Request: fold
Amino acid sequence: MTTAGSPRGRVLVTKLGLDGHDVGAKVIARLLRDHGFEVIYLGIRQTPDAVAAVAVDEDVDLVGVSMLSGAHVPLLSRLMELLRARQWSRPVVVGGVIPAADRDVLTAAGIAAIVDAAAPSAAVVETVDRLIER
Reply:
């Protein structure tokens, strides 16, 4: 599903919690923009409540969250709860440093894909394309 006026879809890119390291998120935002996606970059230190509200209000096709802080399980679980409460059922992708032990927990919470910080650019674009097309 893509939004009118956006050939490949609308993507929200953000950082949750107190993690202020935003270089990776900005690189992903630019990468997706340069590949034809409309990108809304929400920035650092966002709350799950704020991200859920913007995702719904902006009618994005996918939410991409960059996480490096180690607080990914509680923050992403809360985000998924809030999105479900708003009947928003589009994909949420997390990128960054996610330990292998936490991947099943995040998948069970509803995260559609986990993209490792070392993933090649082409893999990031392919993942977003595949998830939006579903």
Remarks:
- The chain has a mean pLDDT of 92.
- Residues 10-119 form a domain with the Rossmann fold fold (CATH 3.40.50.280).
